Amino acid sequence: MTADKSPFMTDPSRSLQGRFLIAMPAMEDRRFAQTVVYMCSHGDDGAMGLIINRRADHITFDELLDQLSIEVAGASPANVPIHVGGPVETGRGFVLHSTEYKGTGATVQVGDGVGLTATTDVLRAIAGGDGPRDTLLVLGYAGWGAGQLEAEIKANGWLVCDAGPELIFVPPPNEKWSRAMATLGVDPALLSAEAGHA
Q1: Can you give the pTM of this predicted structure?
Q2: Please, what are the domains in the chain?
Q3: Are the C-beta atoms of 116 and 80 separated by less than 8 Å?
Q4: Among the ranges given (12-16, 57-61, 131-135), the one the predictor scored with the smallest mean pLDDT
Q5: Are 72 and 65 in contact, with CB atoms under 8 Å apart?
């Protein structure tokens, strides 16, 4: 298979916004081992994405609301999981969500059926039961400088595939990496065995 025909590579001139990065099994950076990253922006100046398959075990939704001084009438939803979005600005929050939620003007549509809000109004809405139908709440993000991500892809650090809301919001975190691999028809065990033998 020639490099220009490989489904694992991407045209560097094509924006990766709204697509997935899937960490290769041999990923050396432990912060990204077996991660799926949903790309929120990608251009000449760099890229930004959110890991969608790592749960945060150091904070609960109620604790987050308390830290942000968000008061809720009644009990807030107890089962709103928080995820680790990446190693950059780990105190900063983002919510990926279904696009029927419009927020107060701070919501942007990132990809097909996926919006992004980074203001506290969405947390108030979720806590009050008026939030988006589907949500993924993350703290922190993954960021790359100009040309850095393209270099990592060329060095076989990442696979690239189309993204959809069903993989972002539906499966449990521990299934997302293998399911993302499966969308490409890739067996991770074969990739592990062949790593470094391209």
Answers
A1: 0.87
A2: 3-52+143-189 (3.40.1740.10), 61-140 (3.40.1740.10)
A3: no
A4: 12-16
A5: yes
